[in-house]
Amino acid sequence: MIDDEKTPGDFAVPDAPGGATRAVRADAKRNIDTLLEAAKEVFATSGVDAPVREIAARAGVGVGTVYRHFPQRADLVAAVFRREVDACAGAAPALAAEHPPCEALSAWLRRYSRFIATKRGLAAALHSGDPAFEPLPAYFRQHLGPALESLLDSAAAAGAVRSDVDPDDLLRAVGNLCLSGSDAGAERMVDLLIDGLRYGARFPAADSPPEQSDAGG
Amino acid sequence: MIDDEKTPGDFAVPDAPGGATRAVRADAKRNIDTLLEAAKEVFATSGVDAPVREIAARAGVGVGTVYRHFPQRADLVAAVFRREVDACAGAAPALAAEHPPCEALSAWLRRYSRFIATKRGLAAALHSGDPAFEPLPAYFRQHLGPALESLLDSAAAAGAVRSDVDPDDLLRAVGNLCLSGSDAGAERMVDLLIDGLRYGARFPAADSPPEQSDAGG
Amino acid sequence: MIDDEKTPGDFAVPDAPGGATRAVRADAKRNIDTLLEAAKEVFATSGVDAPVREIAARAGVGVGTVYRHFPQRADLVAAVFRREVDACAGAAPALAAEHPPCEALSAWLRRYSRFIATKRGLAAALHSGDPAFEPLPAYFRQHLGPALESLLDSAAAAGAVRSDVDPDDLLRAVGNLCLSGSDAGAERMVDLLIDGLRYGARFPAADSPPEQSDAGG
Amino acid sequence: MIDDEKTPGDFAVPDAPGGATRAVRADAKRNIDTLLEAAKEVFATSGVDAPVREIAARAGVGVGTVYRHFPQRADLVAAVFRREVDACAGAAPALAAEHPPCEALSAWLRRYSRFIATKRGLAAALHSGDPAFEPLPAYFRQHLGPALESLLDSAAAAGAVRSDVDPDDLLRAVGNLCLSGSDAGAERMVDLLIDGLRYGARFPAADSPPEQSDAGG
DNA sequence: CATGAATGAGCCTTCATTCAT
DNA sequence: AATGAATGAAGGCTCATTCAT
C-alpha cells in the first residue's frame, strides 16, 4: 500500500527494455543526476524559486537540457524533492539497526530536518496550486510516513515516547519547523518537539498535568 | 478586533515638525493604514509575493501611492509585518488579564499562529538577502519575545509549564509550524509543542524521562 | 443586429464616465493608436507572427506598454484586425455614393483586397485555435457582410451581377485570394471572380466583352 | 493513390557516381520517401510550421536523419511541396484521358485544391524571405502551369470555358482560395471561379446556367 | 549512417519601479 | 500629492540545429 511504488529514482528516466540505446541512456542519466544535484544545491542556496537558467548553469548544461528532462520547472522541483524523500526514507532502516530506538528516532529526525532545511520556498510552492506539486504531499507521506512510523513504534515499544503520535503530524511539524532553514535554533525546536513526544510516554508522570486536552483552549 | 489597536509606530512616515501639516498627515496616515490593511489581506490570500498592483487595487489607490509611502516593495512587506507584530504583542497583556496563566499562554500562541499563517512566502522572503528584511527578525524578537516571556513566566510560576523554555525558541518554533498556513493539522502541531512545554513542568515525571540528553544531541 | 456593437475603435479603451482622468486617457489612447498603426505596418511587413518586440520598437514604446493595452499578443492582432474591418466596412457607403453600382462594388472589393493583403499569416493564426481569434470570423462577417451585401444588391438591381451570390462567400473568396499578398496578379484574380459574379446576371450581355473595363479598374 | 506515383525527382539526394552504393541509395530513398510522407501528413494536420521533431517522430526516425537529408527545415517544406506539385501535375493527363474536357478541368482543380488545402501556413512561409523558398513559385508555375494549360485549352476548344484565362492566374487564384483549408465554402468559392471561367465562353448560356452544380461536374 | 541529447537564441509574458500628467 | 501609463529587466519555455555516441 505504501511501498508498491516504482523503484525510486526512476521517476524521470523511463528505461527502454532493449539494450540498444543503453549508451546514450547512460549519458542522459548521468546528466539527469548532475541536474538533480545542481538543482538541489541551487535550491538550498537560492530557494526553489531559483531561475532555471541558474540551475542549468550550475549543472554546466543549457536550459534546453533541463527542459528535455523536466518539461516544466515544477517537474524539476518535484524530482529533486522525491529523490531526497527517497534518500531520507532509505536512511531509516540503517539508523534503526545502528542505534537504540530513541536515538535512532532523533537521529532520523535530524536527518530529515537537514533535508527540509534545504527547501526554502517549498512551502509556498506547494501552496501555489501548480498541478505538478499536487502529488507531492502524498508522495511525502507515503514514503516518509512509514519510515518514521517504524522508528516511532520502536521507540514507543521501548517506552521512550508516547504511543499516540501520528507520524504524519510529526513529519509535518518537524518539516515546518525547519522549512525556513536550519540555521539558528532549529535543532532546539526539534528537541522541544521530541520532548513533546516523551511527555506521556509509557510511564507517565504519576500526577500528570491535567490540562492535556484543553491545551488548545 | 485588529483595527481597534492604536495605530502602531510611525516607522515609515517622516514626521514634519510643523503643526500646519496635521490635516495632511492625518490623510496620509489614513492612506497608509488602508494600504497596510489591504496588503495584509492580499498577503493572506496570495502570499507575500503578490504583485504590488494587486495590493494597490485592493486599497483603491494607484501603485504610485504605494511607492510614495514604501519606496521598495520589501518595505511594504516589512511594514505590514511590523504592524502585525505590534498588534500581536499588544494582545498579550489583555489575555493575561482575562485568563488563567496557561490559558492565556495558549490563547496568545494561537493568536500568534493566526498572524504567522497569513504570511505565506515570508520565510523565503526573509532569507532573500533583501536588506529591507534584515532588521525584521530582531524586531520580531524584541517585540514578541517579551510578550511571550511574561506569559511563559506566569505559566511557569503557576507550575503549568517548564521554566527552561527560551521564548525566542518557542516563538520561532510556533512561527515555523504555521508558516505554511494553519489549514489542517497546524493546531495539533502547536498542541504537540505545548505538550513539550509541559513536559518537565513543576511536577516532572518521577522516573520516566529516559534519554533526554541524547535527543538534543 | 449587426451594427449595434459599441462604437468601433473603443474596443480597447474603456472610457471612464467621469472626466477626471481624461488627460491620461487621451495619452493612452494616442499610444494605443500608435501601437495599432505600428502593428498594422509590422504585420504587413513581417506577417502577424512578428515578435511583439518588433511592434513595440516600431511604435517607440516598451513591450510593457503593448501588454498593458493588449494583454495577449493575440489581442493586438485581433484589435488591428477589427480596426481595419471597421474602416473597410465604413468605406462602402462613400463608394456607393460616388460611383455607379458595379464600379462601387469592384472598387470596394479592391479596397478590401488591400486590407487582406497586409495580413500575411492571418489565415494560419485564425486556425491556430487561439481563443482570442475565435470571435474574429463572426466580427468579420457581421461588419463586412452587410457592407458588401448592400453593394451587391445595388449591382444586382442594376442588372450588373447575378443576384444569387452569398456576400459571405464572396468575402471569403476574395479574402483568400489576397491572403498571400497583393503583389502580382491578385487583382486579375479578383477580376476573374467578379467576372464570375457577372456570369448569369439578370440581363446577360448578349455580346458583352469579357474584358469589362470597370472590373480591372 | 498518391504513393504509386513514380517517385519524383532527386532534388535532394546527391547522386554518387559509383554503382556499389545502389543498395544504400535505395535505403536512403526509402527513408526520404517516408520522411516526405510523414511531413506531408504533419503539415496537413499542424501546418507547415510544425516542429521538425514532430515530423521525425511521425516518420519513426531521429531528427538527425531529417537534417541529414534536408539541411534546413525549409528544405523539407520545399521538398514536400515539390513532390506534391509533381504528383498533382502528373494527374492531369490521366484525368484528361478519362473525362470530358470540362469535367477533367474541374476534377483537376479539385485535386489541386486538396493539395493546397493541406499546406496551412505555406503562404506565410513563402513570403518569409527564406532563400529555400525562393525557387518554389517558379517550380510551381513551371510544373502546374502547363498541366493546367492543357486542360484549359481542351476545355476552351470544347467551348466550355473562355479562352483568355492565364493558367498561372487561375492556379494562383484557386491556390489562394484554398490556402486556408478546404473546410466550409472553399468548394463554393472555387465553383464561383469556374463560373468566372465560363463567363464569355464561346457559347455563353442564354439565361439559365446559374446552377453551380454542373460547374463541379 | 542513424540517433536523440544538448545547445542556446529568441519568444511571450510578468511585474517592480519610475515619472509625466 | 495621487494616479496609472510606461519601462525594461528577467524568467519560463520552444524549437531549429549541431554533434557525440
How are the SSEs placed, and which strands pair?
Four copies of one chain form a homotetramer.
Chain A: H1 22-46, H2 52-59, H3 63-69, H4 73-98, H5 101-117, H6 122-126, H7 136-157, H8 167-178, H9 186-198
Chain A binds a DNA duplex (21 and 21 nucleotides) through residues 21, 23-24, 27-28, 31, 51-53, 61-65, 67-69, 71-73.
What brief labels describe this structure?
homotetramer, 217 residues, mainly alpha, Arc Repressor Mutant, subunit A, Tetracycline Repressor, domain 2, 2 domains, 9 helices, 62% helix, disordered N terminus, DNA-binding
Overall description:
The structure is a homotetramer of 217-residue chains. Chain A is mainly alpha-helical and 217 residues long. Chain A folds into 2 domains: 20-71, Homeodomain-like (Arc Repressor Mutant, subunit A), CATH 1.10.10; 73-201, Tetracycline Repressor, domain 2 (Orthogonal Bundle), CATH 1.10.357. The first copy, chain A, is built from 9 helices and no strands. Chain A has helices spanning 22-46, 52-59, 63-69, 73-98, 101-117, 122-126, 136-157, 167-178, 186-198. Chain A is elongated, with a radius of gyration of 20 Å. Mean pLDDT of chain A is 79; it is low at 1-23 and 202-217. Chains in contact: A-B, C-D. Chains A and B meet through helix 5, helix 6, helix 8 and helix 9 of A and helix 5, helix 6, helix 8, helix 9 and helix 10 of B. The structure holds a DNA duplex (21 and 21 nucleotides).
